[in-house]
Amino acid sequence: MPPRDHAIPAGKPVTSLDEVLVDCRNAALTFGRGATAVVAVHGANLWVRSADRLAIVGPSGSGKSSLLHLLAGLEQTTSGTVTWPALDGPGGIGIVFQGDSLIAALDVVENTALPLVLAGVPDGEAHRLAAEALALVDAADLAERLPEEISGGQAQRVAAARVLAQSPRLILADEPTGRLDHTTGGHVLDALLTAADQTGAALVVTTHDPAIAARLTTRLAMRGGRLLTVDEPQEAS
User: CA-to-CA distance for 112 and 164, rounded, in angstroms?
Assistant: First the structure.
């Protein structure tokens, strides 16, 4: 069954605050076959709801990113199911990947607008939405810079803005602070939380940093590909 804090009691009407965006039931993911097979996720059960601020915590190799990829529809389950009851499939999901993801030849606003342009949004409207998203993450002043002209923390904020410009109902962020110092990582999480609050999106963040996880409402732990516990966050030191 899904973790208790992420289950909706039987018979309770679904509201805008507890609407289930992702229903993950006994979902497993295995890479390879036979003796060389590696089980990245073992039978995970999880509901992600529309008001969630959720951290998935664990060391490198614990299966956090693999689980996130299942939630995003980037990988298909080997067994079990992942469905998106309140979304148009995984299309209502925006993903902030770890590390560099900006196109070097495009400036910041062009990078932010690119997914919208590719989706058929007219250039002017795409750039307007991109500028609004950059303002949400306090990066409006970077609009005309190239990726090589901004810092790693700024690039992660731009990556977040690129997702936010698409107005997703669920934001999945895979170790968005993993390559950043503590202060810069805190600013990136500030941007994600603020943007999720302002756009009404749910937010799921994978992290190995307990201080980052402590700032989200609920924390799940992964070890060896298994989703182990649901913890209430503790204050960051």
Answer: 9
Residues in a beta bridge with 227: 222
Extract the runs of DSSP E, i.e. beta strands, from 73-168: 79-83, 93-96
- Rounded Cα gap, residues 181 and 212, in angstroms: 12
Pick from 210, 181, 202: which is nearest to 57 by CA?
210
Contacts of the segment 67-76: beta carbons below 8 A, 24+ positions apart: 67/27, 67/29, 67/41, 67/206, 67/222, 67/227, 68/95, 68/172, 68/174, 68/204, 68/206, 69/29, 70/24, 70/27, 70/29, 70/41, 70/44, 71/22, 71/24, 71/46, 71/172, 71/204, 72/172, 75/29
The pLDDT tens digits for 108-167 are 999 999 999 998 999 999 999 999 999 988 899 999 999 999 988 888 889 888 988 988
Q: Where does the pLDDT of residue 81 fall: very low under 50, low under 70, confident under 90, or very high at 90 and above? A: very high
What is the topology classification, in CATH, of domain 50-77+86-231?
A: Rossmann fold (3.40.50)
195: tokens are 């943007």
Distance between CA 201 and CA 86 in Å, rounded? 13
Amino acid at the residue 53:
R
* pLDDT tens-place string over residues 23-51: 999 999 999 988 889 999 999 999 999 88
Question: Which three-class secondary structure state does DSSP give residue 60?
Answer: coil
| Domain assignments of the chain as residue spans, ordered by start | 50-77+86-231
Length of the chain equals: 237
Label residue 98 exposed, middle or buried (CB < 10 Å: 0-12, 13-18, 19+): middle
